[in-house]
């Protein structure tokens, strides 16, 4: 079966199959647009796509996949350092850009290939091997530059088919969301899902409550920040009563938000769990209970276990590191055999780095990170080490430590503790925003005389997070 099986076979020419903001196309038109891009990419092995919330991004990603290329989404708010790292590290041979749009200003940028939405092609391309790479998604770790997670076409298909089973996701659905198109949630689930499973798609652009309310979908995706804002807008929340399913992911949904949506929208939200490296592995089901603070059961083809610090098994409700294995796992980190080795156990399980408990009934609860260096803010996963590296590039900064601190809307905010001379908080925030994606900038910088360290000289971040 083709990865984008519905799109590949559909003869439906009715408009509004896929809508991004205020532009829409039919299934047939989308396939013909993407086929034209695929023709231009003939022979390209890896293609980068600036992942703006636009129809050009959808057509570009689909065109790359039809051509059998590995697609490398580039965050549109990436700073020059991050963008150049992604382009160089991925080995992208072409960069898809909107026809007539601005040229990407980067010495690492490969030749530009325009995505011209006026062009059409009826050429059919052979379906690549399921083991071929579909996506290289860059994910922030706890140290250094982002790593490229290599995801096969087989893994993406397994994830989407598992979610179709769990969520009763069918061509009768109309999916609505406003998520970024360079992450698993917005791109794999939110774009490739409809193109494989046949549901219509409406990407609302900026995910404002009033846009979700006006979209009249049956299936809605959001992160806790979006659901929190919708719960605070009573009219918007009530407008979702006609939906079939609300889904939350990327971070834990606060229980008060779960309760507010149950009251106002009439929906107990489905929560699910996954990572870039594993795609979605655990979820509540559409035909089962939804419990606040829990993420449900493993999807078909996925196995999980919780282990202690020595890797030994824990009894039901024991708290330890969650490890997973199954058909949805990535193939490894690009150019990083060291990181690959560190991420897997000797018997082949992936170490998530998340602490979890699994009850006697198999329901999973994610407690938090095993370390303090991965910050979940507004649905984004931000590596503290990457932000620290950016701060340390400032000539006035001598030391820097970054932690996640509680935030009522974002869940966590990026907070930096900095030792230096003649520094101003606003200048440092702007400095980071110029080098990294804007969402990775510190929302608060605290200037301190020294960082707390242990006898080995390691910064005691747990003390900073409690300050």
TrEMBL record:
Matches recorded under Gene3D superfamilies: 3.30.300.30, N-terminal domain of ligase-like
Sequence ranges assigned to domain AMP-dependent synthetase/ligase in this UniProt record: 13-334
Annotated keywords: Ligase
Listed GO MF terms: acid-thiol ligase activity
AMP-binding enzyme C-terminal domain: residues covered: 386-458
Highest taxon, organism lineage: Bacteria
PANTHER family xrefs: LONG-CHAIN-FATTY-ACID--COA LIGASE, NONRIBOSOMAL PEPTIDE SYNTHASE PES1 (EUROFUNG)-RELATED
Name of this chain's protein: Fatty acid CoA ligase FadD36
Gene source species: Micromonospora chaiyaphumensis
């Amino acid at each position: 079966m083709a990865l984008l099986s519905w799109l590949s076979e559909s003869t439906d020419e009715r408009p509004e199959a896929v809508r991004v903001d205020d532009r829409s196309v039919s299934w047939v038109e989308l396939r013909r647009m993407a086929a034209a891009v695929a023709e231009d990419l003939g022979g390209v092995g890896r293609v980068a796509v600036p992942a703006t919330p636009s129809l050009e991004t959808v057509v570009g990603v689909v065109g790359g996949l039809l051509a059998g290329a590995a697609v490398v989404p580039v965050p549109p708010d990436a700073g020059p350092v991050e963008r150049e790292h992604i382009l160089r590290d991925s080995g992208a041979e072409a960069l898809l850009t909107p026809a007539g749009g601005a040229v990407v200003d980067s010495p690492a940028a490969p030749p530009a290939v325009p995505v011209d939405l006026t062009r059409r092609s009826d050429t059919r391309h052979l379906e690549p091997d399921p083991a071929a790479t579909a996506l290289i998604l860059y994910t922030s770790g706890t140290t250094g530059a982002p790593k490229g997670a290599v995801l096969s076409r087989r893994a993406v298909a397994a994830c989407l088919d598992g979610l179709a089973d769990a969520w009763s996701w069918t061509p009768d659905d109309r999916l609505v969301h406003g998520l970024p198109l360079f992450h698993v949630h917005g791109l794999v689930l939110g774009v490739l899902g409809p193109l494989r499973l046949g549901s219509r798609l409406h990407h609302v652009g900026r995910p404002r409550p009033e846009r979700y309310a006006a979209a009249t979908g049956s299936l809605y995706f959001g992160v806790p920040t979006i659901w929190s804002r919708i719960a605070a807008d009573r009219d918007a929340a009530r407008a979702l009563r006609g939906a079939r399913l609300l889904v939350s992911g990327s971070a834990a949904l606060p229980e008060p938000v779960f309760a507010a949506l149950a009251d106002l929208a009439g929906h107990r939200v489905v929560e699910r769990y996954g990572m870039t490296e594993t795609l979605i592995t655990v979820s509540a089901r559409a035909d089962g209970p939804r419990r606040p603070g829990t993420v449900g059961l493993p999807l078909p083809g996925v196995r999980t276990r919780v282990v202690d610090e020595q890797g030994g098994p824990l009894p039901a409700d024991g708290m330890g590191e969650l490890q997973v294995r199954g058909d949805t796992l990535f193939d490894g980190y690009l150019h990083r055999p060291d990181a690959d080795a560190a991420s897997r156990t000797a018997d082949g399980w992936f170490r998530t780095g998340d602490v979890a408990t699994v009850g006697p009934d198999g329901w999973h609860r994610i407690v938090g990170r095993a370390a303090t260096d991965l910050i979940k803010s507004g649905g984004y996963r931000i590596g503290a080490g990457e932000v620290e590296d950016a701060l340390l590039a400032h000539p006035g900064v001598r030391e820097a430590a970054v932690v996640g601190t509680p935030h009522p809307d974002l869940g966590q905010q990026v907070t930096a503790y900095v030792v230096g001379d003649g520094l101003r908080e606003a200048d440092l925030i702007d400095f980071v925003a110029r080098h990294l994606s804007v969402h990775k900038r510190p929302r608060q910088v605290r200037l301190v005389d020294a960082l707390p360290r242990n006898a080995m000289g390691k910064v005691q971040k747990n003390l900073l997070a409690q300050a």
